[in-house]
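Give me the fold.
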Amino acid sequence: MLFRTSYGEDLQIVVAPDPRLLKKAELVGIEELPKMKALATEMAELMYETMGCGLAATQVGILKRLIVVDPDWGILDEESGEPSPPDPHFLINPVILRLWGTKELMDEGCLSVPGITVPIERYESIEVEAFDLDGNMQVFEADGFAARVLQHEIDHLEGMTLFERLDPLLRIEAIQLYEDALAAGAKPGDTTAPGQESTRKRVPEQAATPIEEAVSTVSSAVAPPVTVP
């Protein structure tokens, strides 16, 4: 699905090996906040449409330091059995203040690297400073899967994809798998190549859930610590 942006462009996921993914994003100025609000809403819609839990402006070809994350979205609640509703969090000019805890190895997928997952080592906990959509500074902590999502998206702002996190031998193997997945028709949101069994845990029906109300009521960058089993 394409979205018309305030930049006058069709918003769509940029996929590797697009060179824009390897460029460092620029800081957002105060005067740019109105545009960032419009862009953030469009990014959130696209993120949900493609079954993501995080998206950086770099991934839609806009080199600005803006990310949207929703680590809980679509995850089934163990007690109620219901999927978590959309609850996007927007971070402008995020800065990692500290990383701590055990480094955990876990398979990660990426909307910009569709069709594969690769093992990435990330710190268990993170503290981030960022502006919200109203220009207010926020400092918060996240653990577990939420910390992983934040590290992943901030990597994109630094011009890093999953491939840049791998050692040379694993990178060669991952690129070959990725090329095979693209040849098979992998699209953003796919965590395996078409025809293979998906390991996705999110609920597809959530992708069609209207999020305008959720987006309009969430301008804070504060996200609670989340651990996903």
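Confidence is low (pLDDT under 50) at residues 198-229.
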